[in-house]
Design brief:
about 110 residues; alpha+beta; four-stranded antiparallel sheet; about 50% helix
Length: about 110
């Protein structure tokens, strides 16, 4: 299982499943392939973008619930079936702490 490891000097490492990390980075306009950085000066904007995306998702109709099958279990392990609003909470907190400490958040390094 591939994971993203987000690092900063202000927080402990934040680990995310690959699919979730890719989704968040794509929403932020970052290349999910390879290393990257979110500058502390850009974190308020990043939090707004993610919050707006979560609100937009909440307004979309939900797909029908699926049976508890092996495919459903694998989807749950990759963060599917869990709302974006739930998935972004630790990331938003990390961004908030990094901004307050004026340190950047990096991944893939």
């Amino acid at each position: 299982m591939t994971m993203y490891r987000f690092k900063s000097r202000a927080t402990s490492d934040l680990l995310m499943h690959q699919a979730v990390g890719q989704q968040l980075l794509t929403l932020l306009g970052k290349d999910p392939e390879g290393a990257g950085v979110i500058l502390w000066q850009d974190m308020a904007h990043a939090r707004r973008v993610l919050t707006q995306a979560a609100q937009a998702e909440a307004q979309d109709p939900k797909p029908e619930e699926t049976e508890a099958t092996e495919d459903a279990w694998e989807a749950a392990q990759q963060g599917q079936g869990i709302s974006l609003a739930q998935r972004i909470v630790p990331f938003l907190e990390t961004l908030k702490r990094c901004e307050a400490a004026q340190v950047d958040l990096v991944w893939g390094v």
